[in-house]
Amino acid sequence: MNATEGVATMGIHRRNLIGAGMAGIAACAVGTPASRTSTASEWRLLGEKVKAEMCWAWDLYRERAWGKDEIKPISGTFSSFPLKAHHLGLSLIEALDTLWVMGLDSRFADGVAWIKAELDFDVDGEVSVFEASIRLVGGLLSAHHASGDPMLLVKARDLADRLLPAFDTPTGFPYRYINLKTGARRDSATNPAEVGTFLPEWGTLSRLTGDPRYHAAARRAVVALFAKRSRLDLLAVKIDALTGEWLDSRATVGSYSDSFYEYLWDSWHLFGDVECRHMYEVCTAAILRHQQVWKGGKLWIADIDFETGTVVSTEQDELASFYGGLLAQGGAKTEGAALTETWSALQDRFGVLPEGFDYESGMPTARTNSLRPELADAVFNLWLVDRNPRWREIGRRHFLAMKRWNKARFGYADLADVTTTPKRQADHCPGYWWSEQMKYYYLLFSDTPRFDYSKNYLSTEGNVLLGFRRGD
Ligand code: DMJ
User: Fold this and answer.
1) CA 270 to CA 256: how far, in whole Å?
2) CA–CA gap between residue 291 and residue 397 (Å, rounded)
3) Model pLDDT, residue 471
4) Is 258 part of the annotated catalytic residue set?
5) pLDDT tens digit string along 123-181?
6) Total domains in the fold of the chain
7) 136 and 168 inside one domain
8) Ligand 1 atom 8: residue of nearest CA
9) pLDDT in tens, 287-300
10) Is the distance from the beta carbon of residue 359 to the nearest atom of ligand 1 less than 6 Å?
11) Residue 155 maps to which CATH number?
12) Whole-model pTM?
């Protein structure tokens, strides 16, 4: 029962590597207003403004929270994540490749020196296996890709070795949490994102170290989860890693499932893994067939029952706004563009996207915003596919709104309410801010020679694992 006003034709037209050979193709985004034309130098100037914000925030982090996980941008203090009471330099690690691609080399070197002198994963504390991998293993690998420093690879491997026992389950799906020192594991009630968001980082680790265990564990989990799909070829959002039994029936492309689909495509893109490409195609065809909802000329991807196809919620999660970029990368550019325009219109309405929105009532269901990068991620990926300036324009609005509303005394802050004027800030800056939107904006606007725009790979956390040009 898809509450459709008109169901789009399901077309997944295959395309090869992101951006390869696509530059210059004039594509027309669905229902888009005309963009103001900007010159190449105006875009570059905007890139410089992004870089200036990065410098400003980094220098405050250096002064107030050096080596801590997250700066509190209103009070100038700090908080820890992913460990409860110990810092691992999360923001520093997440920032490194962004600093590097911006040419902020002395700040990059300063961060690497901290890692060499201070970073130690031998801590008696529990981390999320998923978060530790995408943010810390991925951050260290991208900094290694930027600099070639072997110490960064040693650190990434040390952490992955501590996470690896989580995958030792009957299904191959990892436990959600593990103690970095003792290896004690906890919580087998997991989800597609926390099962299947490892392969690009762990495959890269295997390639760089010659140790196949990381790639094998990550891949086994993905293949086993795909085998659990319903007869509609859909996955639900909760599954037990010990029994392999589904614990929920809701299919979504939002939180807890999002990056599973992303990493199917990415593993094909990065490693030429044909089976991952096949799994991506099967999942995407099913999502487009069963979950597309058109309402008032806008495309949404509804949450549905994975066995019956019945719509179970008309609420949309901000995290799902990344999905238009992925669709376009995978060849479904019309749907990807339409979905991104839907989220862009919501951005125009609120200035900054709310965490939750109900397309049926037209009202936000969560008024907060955790300084999220997903729409910037989508437009960057769309722009890599077709170089349509429309995507840069949406990215510019995302950046300017963030600068206007999220900038606090000591850095960039979450929002407690996007519907008030001025928008109410919250005293937290997530680690991904340093790795994701600041990098997407800069790459989108700057045309930097440090990045290969035709052959590259950015992880779900924005970590660049392919495409840096050293020596420029
Ligand atoms: C990031 O940590 C990653 O993009 C992840 O896949 C989900 N979203 C957060 C940022 O919102």
Assistant:
1) 23
2) 28
3) 79
4) yes
5) 999 999 999 999 999 999 999 999 999 999 999 999 999 999 999 999 999 999 999 99
6) 2
7) yes
8) 319
9) 999 999 999 999 99
10) no
11) 1.50.10.10
12) 0.93
